[in-house]
Amino acid sequence: MQTPCIHVCSMDPASGFCVGCGRTLQEIGGWMGFSDAERCRIMALLPARVSGVVSNHAKTNFAGGPELPL
């Protein structure tokens, strides 16, 4: 089963997405129960999510903002 997890598990509080993989907590928790089609649909969304999250996360951390581990 394909997974986008890269073991950089930290949630961005502004977006609600994981900084490493771009998934929400609900998507992470439900990943094993999703159909192949649902996982593919989510996987297609992740590149745009991750690029936005990484940009926002870097700004937040440089500003001394909170980082929330999973």
Distance from first to last alpha carbon: 22 Å
Biggest pleated sheet: 2 strands, antiparallel
Topology pattern, helix = H, strand = E = EHHE
Beta content: 5-15%
Number of helices: 2
Q: Give the oligomeric state.
A: single chain
What is the 3D form? Answer: globular
Helical/strand content category: mainly alpha
Strand tally is 2
Rg value: 12 Å
Provide a descriptive summary of the structure in words:
This protein is mostly helical. The protein starts with 9 loop residues before the first strand and ends with a strand. It has a two-stranded antiparallel sheet with strand order 1-2. The chain contains 2 helices and 2 strands. The mean pLDDT is 85. The chain has helices at residues 25-30, 36-62; strands at 10-11, 68-69. It has one domain (10-64). InterPro entries: DUF1289. This is DUF1289 domain-containing protein.
